[in-house]
Amino acid sequence: MGGGGEGASYTVDDALTKMGFGTFQALVLAYAGMGQAAEAMEMMLLSFVGPAVQAEWGLSSRQESMITSVVFAGMLVGAYTWGIVSDNHGRRKGFLITAICTFSAGFLSALAPNYISLIFLRCLVGVGLGGGPVLSSWFLEFIPAANRGTWMVIFSTFWTLGTVLEASLAWLVMPTLGWRWLLGMSSFPTLFLLIFYKFTPESPRYFCTKGRIDEALSILEKISRLNGAELPSGKLVSDHMYELELDEKSNPSEDTLLLSPTKRNDSPIASPKNKVSSETQGGLSSLLLLLSPELVRSTLLLWIVFFGNAFSYYGLVLLTSELSTQNSQCDPTSLHSGNSPTTNNNLYLDVLITSFAEFPGLLLAAAIVDRIGRKLSMSTMFFICCIFLFPLMFHQPENLTTALLFGARICITGTFTVVYIYAPEIYPTSIRTTGVGVASSVGRIGGIICPMVAVGLIHGCHQTLAIFLFEVVVFLAGTAVVFFPFETKGRELTNNSVISPSSSSSKSNISL
User: Fold this and answer.
1) Residues 247-280 pLDDT 10s
2) Helix/strand/coil (H/E/C) assignment for every residue in 246-310
3) Which of 31, 46, 162, 222 could form a disulfide with 37 if both were Cys (CB 3.0 to 4.6 A apart)?
4) How far apart, in Å, are the Cα atoms of 61 and each of 42, 55, 119, 455, 485?
5) What is the rounded distance in angstroms from the CA atom of residue 101 to the CA atom of residue 122?
6) For 430-464, what is each residue's pLDDT tens digit?
């Protein structure tokens, strides 16, 4: 352990930077990644269950769409709720409740006797899945700033593994055992989160925001032991205490002036008078802080990007299954011929192929996110996605359709990955999971709407209109990224410091 010079102090970021990414973070990555994969499986199965249930129960296309839409409706509620729980009561409690809800409702939905009960249970699954941002924020808070972007991309690979695993599972299970077995088997990965829950640590950043410095230090000491690295010299302090010490011990430098709330009107972080104590911060006050003058621009633009990402990503997943059944012809009767083994095999194969597109999407994001920055990475991939989608406004041969969807999926996977890195980086620790959770909730609105577009319009022989709507949404999301007020590449996560949009120093702090 680091011993101390008298009066010396350090923050959680200082400690994580010195200790680096080691065994402790690898274990945290494995646990959070397991949750990410489980969530991906629950989402991916929607493209298989809807058509199967429609064929078995004789549902209308609108009823089929509802099976997907209610999941996103539940996620809208869950993302906001679990974000507040996590910020006020701890990250661990947040993802414990979500895991219990997801597993229980997911398993029971496999036993649903009728359409209404299935809709209800899938909605509860969505409420549980809404806690996904809690796990990602929890993992992020253990990562050193210098390579945070790269490790968050690696974390996102677990989502892709989940989608590929689910597509493979559907290919094996659906033709013989049916959709109920697929639902039941897909719920079990979440069970592992509950089995290993007792071994998970709380975020030291969360402890610091609550003034529980001794408990935060205990976690850091555990990281030190597992990583075989020493803590910095001195005593652990919260970010706010650290900045007060700097103010008392030194004259303001150029960097201090850049980081001073009183000197920066365009700061993404609320000034002290706008900060709300974690202890008294409720749902409404958290939302008001997200919409404070210092954060409102970033928050609203982030909501647009999350909406566009969710709408386009899940829309592409559903488009793959819907367009693959058309064989380049708008024949309404063929859309209901899902009992054909050939059609089903083509559907599973097309979905599996496009799922593999997420691997190059992740590699692309990993290659550029810490080099060219979050903003340029996202905007570039959004606009390239528009290029891939444009030919699909008109009927194309099946192989070309799959190839274009493959390219679009690469881009949208990349943007989804980067926005989940960027979003936690623009909010203070005390409202980080609330901020990401609310943005994720807004994204779920896009998820609710997209099945009506991807399924309803395609079934109604309106492919051109459906793809045009996707083009508009993706283009607007890319434009919103351009107008983000600041870049967060290489910034430290703190609770109350502010960032200078023009500063390029990797040691500058960000209001995180």
Assistant:
1) 433 343 323 322 233 333 333 333 333 443 443 3
2) HHHHCCCCHHHHHHCCCCCCCCCCCCHHHCCCCCCCCHHHHHHHHCCCCCHHHHHHHHHHHHHHH
3) 162
4) 21, 10, 14, 7, 42
5) 11
6) 777 778 778 877 887 887 787 777 666 776 677 78
Q: Which two tokens stand for residue 173?
A: 């299970």
DSSP-derived 3-state class of residue 352: helix
DSSP 427: S
Among 454, 308, 441, 455, CA closest to 383: 308
Q: How far is CA 107 from the centre of its chain?
A: 23
Rounded to whole angstroms, the Cα distance separating 238 from 496 reads 10
Query: Measured between alpha carbons, how far apart are the two ends of the chain, in Å?
Result: 26
Question: What local confidence, expressed as pLDDT, does residue 109 receive?
Answer: 92
**pTM higher than 0.90:** no
DSSP letter for each residue of 15-68 = HHHHH-S-HHHHHHHHHHHHHHHHHHHHHHTHHHHHHHHHHHHT--HHHHHHHH
As beta bridge partners, residue 492 has 509
What are 407-437's pLDDT values in tens digits? Answer: 998 999 889 888 888 887 887 767 777 787 7
Q: Is 9 in a helix, a strand, or coil?
A: strand
Question: How far apart are alpha carbons 427 and 443 in whole angstroms?
Answer: 18
DSSP 8-state assignment for residue 317: H
- Provide CB contacts within 8 A for 59, sequence distance 6+: 53, 115
Amino acid identity of residue 363, one-letter, is L
Q: Residue 292, CB half-sphere, CA atoms under 13 Å: how many? A: 23
Dist. CA 224–CA 212, nearest whole Å: 19
Closest among 496, 381, 370 to 422, alpha carbons compared: 370
Contact residues for 92 (Cβ-Cβ < 8 A; gap 6+): 138, 197, 200, 201, 202
- Amino acid, res. 141: E
